[in-house]
Design goal:
single chain, six-stranded mixed beta sheet, 26% strand, globular
């Protein structure tokens, strides 16, 4: 009996020791196999400092825990193995990835568009187009042309491999609400939805959220044609087909075990060179030049612009590509002197146009007589703009009785037109930027709104300019 009990105790101790050893392996092996690169499309935590702001860092232990979670040894292998195992049961281990049929993967951030579950309100759609219109007018006032283009979500073009999800709202998506308003406002627009739907072949990658090499070429030529720019079409360029594209969704779901797929890329000797400090297409700010190119370009882009960048850089004598938001429009127009400004935005982020407008001096008109708005209320704050300290950001909300009203801020005998902001608190927000030398602490500003051709005065508020952070 004692022998049996002793054997059981030994087995228990061996099991406990083995479990502890397994738990210690990721920590002990960090000395030579620390995870410093991620496959999950995010930034890894940095090792925290023991002190901060001249004192002890009270969050040191929790920050150290997050650092360990991101960097423990063999993390990518563990994440990948978990993804492969869960895929056997038809699900994705990553919250950011939807497992479709036939090996297809979709980005979960596109689900609200696909299901029509978070469609912009009519006012939000109006706000977005209003802001794009102010942006276009500002660009044109500086002597450049403007073009908007929207990169379609993958499941907007290829929904047949989506799993059980189905639309929850109306048949309209955000792009459907915006297109008629863009046309009415005469916003120059390159329609990539129509261009891709006219093609019989699949031009997006199965395990990536973006288009493939041939899709990038189609998007580039569609945008360049819509802009009326002289450009290289690459019609005679050679292509290279290789099974080496793991895909951003594949890496997020399966990490190091992501299965590569075929992709086709243009094979040409670049005539352009980078003039910026960096040359990685993931960098937030890049500039190029090509003595054989034509025209000067400023392009605001997201990750869909990664594969467009080499094509536009090859065609333009000088080009600037910015991923940063908000767009530093006035700064870039002054520094880069472009002839063409392109704003490329992926479909899932269209609401950004109603929430994060570009940094530029608000358009102005002389002050004029206004009626009193008896029932309207307004709020206002002013602070140094975090994106550009040479500007003051004035923002707030105005409750009006009309859906399509414009908002103005009066200062020093001038009315400045504001961007219209939609956010979690509703669609009544506004925001504008003024150069720091035009507005000072203690200045009184007056908030107005215009509706039906009439200007209404809401309130006058003395301002205190806050720090950016």
């Amino acid at each position: 009996m004692d022998t049996k009990r002793n054997t059981q105790n030994v087995l228990r101790l061996c099991f406990i020791a083995s479990a502890l050893l397994l738990c210690l392996i990721p920590l002990v092996c960090m000395t030579f196999a620390r995870t410093d690169e991620t496959t999950e499309n995010r930034r890894l935590s940095k090792f925290p400092s023991l002190t901060t702001d001249g004192g002890l860092n009270k969050d040191f232990l929790s920050q150290t825990g997050k650092y360990y979670e991101d960097h423990f040894a063999f993390r990518n292998q563990v994440v990948g193995a978990d993804g492969v195992l869960q895929a056997l049961f038809g699900v994705s281990s990553a919250d950011t990835v939807i497992k479709g049929t036939g090996g297809w993967l979709y980005y979960s951030a596109t689900l609200p568009d696909f299901q029509r579950s978070h469609v912009m309100t009519d006012r939000a759609a109006y706000n977005a187009v209003h802001n794009i219109t102010l942006m276009r007018d500002f660009v044109e006032s500086r002597g450049a042309s403007f073009l908007l283009t929207v990169a379609p979500n993958k499941n907007s073009l290829y929904p047949e491999h989506m799993p059980y999800y189905s639309p929850q709202g109306t048949g309209e998506k955000n792009i459907d609400k915006l297109l008629p308003l863009l046309k009415e406002a005469e916003i120059p627009y390159a329609d990539l939805f129509a261009a891709f739907k006219n093609e019989d072949e699949i031009l997006y990658l199965m395990r990536d959220s973006h288009w493939n090499g041939r899709g990038a070429l189609l998007a580039y030529n569609t945008i360049a044609d819509a802009a009326g720019m002289a450009h290289e079409t690459f019609s005679g360029a050679q292509t290279v087909r290789a099974k080496d594209e793991a895909g951003d969704l594949g890496r997020m779901a399966y990490a190091v075990f992501a299965k590569p797929e075929w992709n086709e890329r243009l094979d040409f000797e670049p005539g352009y060179r980078f003039t910026s400090a960096g040359s990685d297409v993931e960098d937030a700010f890049l500039t190029t030049e090509n003595p054989n190119g034509t025209g000067r370009l400023l392009m605001y882009r997201d990750s869909f612009g990664n594969t467009l960048l080499p094509l536009f850089a090859e065609s333009c004598s000088a080009a600037c590509f910015s991923k940063a938001t908000p767009y530093l429009l006035e700064k870039h127009l002054a520094e880069q002197t472009p002839e063409l400004v392109i704003a490329e935005k992926v479909e899932r982020n269209l609401a950004d146009f109603a929430g994060d407008p570009p940094v530029m001096t608000a358009p102005s008109i002389p002050a004029e007589a206004a009626e009193s708005a008896q029932d309207a209320k307004a709020e206002l704050t002013a602070k140094v703009a975090a994106a550009d300290f040479s500007f003051v950001q004035i923002a707030g909300s105005v409750e009006t009785q009309t859906e399509h009203s414009a908002v103005f801020v009066g200062l020093g005998g001038t009315l400045y037109e504001a961007f219209l902001i939609s956010g979690k608190d509703g669609d009544d927000g506004y925001m504008l930027y003024l150069p720091a030398d035009r507005v000072r602490d203690g200045d009184s500003v007056t908030v107005y709104y215009r509706a039906g051709g009439r200007l209404f005065e809401v309130t006058t508020i003395p301002i205190t300019i806050q720090e950016a952070f």
